[in-house]
From TrEMBL:
Residues 1-27 are annotated as: Disordered. This is Trehalase family glycosidase. GO terms for molecular function: hydrolase activity, acting on glycosyl bonds. It comes from the Bacteria. Keywords: Glycosidase, Hydrolase. Belongs to the glycosyl hydrolase 63 family. Pfam families: MGH1-like_GH. Residues 62-455 form the Mannosylglycerate hydrolase MGH1-like glycoside hydrolase domain.
């Protein structure tokens, strides 16, 4: 397979990796062979990470069940093991809290204490009246589960998938109710994050300003042993000071029994996030489709989706920058960092045309490099920014999940040219470098954990649709 400068996949390399239109029969044949090899790699990765009722993100860094990982994983499993896709979601939602929140980690009780930090003893979820019997964390992640469930049903429709949708539907509705109700701290109709981990983009530059206001000292970490840096280069992970602040934010939330009443006056981190709320709106669209299948009323879901999209545009879109930004509720200001979070509202099918055009312009700018033929993968942060870090977690590297979300948004907004370019870039990363957690935004080299489940799953999904 040919490659561009610095080892990154060039146009011919993309065609060979994915079977794209290179005009060369030999290259097309190689493309078919490599697509088959990529599929086998992805299946082997998912099979290797399967536990008895869920899939771990990786065997090294992440040995438990993670919320939005399981949603992404279910999408890919639906292509190859649909029974596992539904079991994945059932296992996660079996640990849903009584207040509707879906915790971002469900801990495996078979693992020894200290196998992951922060583990169940740190979260101490049992102190919360709404917590389930299972040990979990007390925070959430973006609610992409309803879209994932709908996609899983579409990929492999059956009587079993309809029954699974019927079981999940009230639980997905409760998840939405929790986020639009208890988490609407700003009173604007949007849900807010209480921790950077809830965004999924843990240490994005988008959180630097609100995190700087969190009192913490790196010495706090002396009381704990980080698990991540034992399995990945510290240069690729959040700093100890970042972790000290993460711990401080969890401690503040835990001290209140993970309750959401009165957060505005006492919690150190409160941010309205474009991704969290775009996922919230996309979930309502998916729930409308699910409702139609199981015999419920789709109308209220469509109405709520429209309200969420309107609030997102009103609160988080900046007409000057032409992109979406998180809003810090403590300062009531948009956070200026230009990250991939600002592109995520494209997953909303009812995003107004003006914002669609502006976000596409942002995505296609030198900051992110989206194009019909991409010579470098999509970044998670503005690659022209002075604080762009090509190997540090969420501060520059390319991740398949954010690329996949944008790919689906491009398809929804009828940009097949850009969608095809992004798909080829995603598949070339995996074909050249394996199912890594994330990738170098210039060379495509694999970073973080190898054999990463959502990378495998989303590669399968992208392979299945041109």
């Amino acid at each position: 397979m040919s490659a561009g400068p610095a080892g990154r996949p060039g146009a011919a390399g993309l065609d060979a990796a994915t079977g794209g239109p290179g005009g060369d029969p030999a290259a097309a044949r190689i493309g078919v062979e490599r697509a088959a090899a990529l599929r086998r790699l992805a299946i082997d990765t998912l099979d290797g990470n399967w536990e008895h009722d869920h899939t771990v993100p990786s065997r090294t860094l992440y040995p438990h069940q993670w919320s939005w990982d399981s949603a992404f994983i279910a999408v890919g499993l639906a292509h190859i093991r649909p029974d596992r896709a539904w079991r994945e979601l059932r296992t996660l939602f079996a640990a849903q809290w009584a207040d509707g929140r879906v915790p971002h980690i469900v801990f495996n009780p078979a693992l020894p204490v200290g196998s992951y930090f922060p583990g169940p003893e740190f979260w101490d979820s049992a102190r919360a009246p709404a917590a389930p019997a299972a040990a979990t964390s007390g925070i959430v992640q973006p609610p992409i589960h309803a879209p994932a469930a709908w996609l899983a049903h579409r990929r492999a429709p059956s009587e079993a998938s309809v029954r699974a949708l019927g079981w999940l539907y009230p639980r997905l509705v409760a998840q939405q109710r929790y986020l639009t109700g208890r988490r609407d701290v700003g009173g604007s109709g949007l849900a807010c994050l209480v921790h950077p981990w809830e965004s999924g983009l843990d240490n994005s530059p988008a959180w630097d300003a609100p995190m700087a206001a969190v009192p913490a000292d790196a010495a706090v970490m002396r009381a704990y042993r980080r698990h991540d840096t034992a399995h990945a280069d510290a240069a690729q992970r959040p700093t100890d000071l970042d972790y000290a602040r993460y711990v401080a934010i969890v401690a503040a939330y835990r001290a209140g029994g993970y309750g959401d009443a009165g957060l505005a006056g006492r919690h150190p981190f409160l941010v309205e996030c474009p991704l969290l709320n775009a996922a919230l709106g996309a979930a309502e669209h998916a729930l409308a489709r699910i409702a139609a299948v199981i015999g419920a009323d789709p109308g209220p879901h469509r109405e709520r989706a429209a309200r969420i999209t309107a609030a997102l545009v009103d609160r988080l879109y900046d007409p000057i920058t032409g992109t979406f930004h998180p809003r810090d509720l403590h300062t009531d200001r948009l956070i200026p960092a230009r990250t991939v979070l600002g592109l995520m509202p494209l997953i909303l099918p009812d995003l107004p045309a003006r914002q669609v055009r502006a976000v596409l312009a942002e995505a296609c700018s030198p900051r992110f490099g989206l194009a019909a033929r991409m010579d470098r993968p999509l970044t998670t942060h503005d690659r022209t920014a002075p604080d762009f870090e090509p190997v540090r977690y969420w501060r520059g590297p390319s991740w398949l999940n954010t690329s996949w979300l944008l790919w689906r948004g491009l398809r929804a907004h009828r940009r097949p040219d850009l969608a095809a370019g992004l798909r080829e870039s995603m598949l070339a990363l995996v074909a050249l470098n394996g199912c890594h957690e994330y990738f170098h935004p210039d060379t495509g080299a694999g970073l973080g954990s190898p054999a990463f489940s959502w990378t495998a799953s989303l590669a399968l999904d992208a392979l299945a649709e041109s």
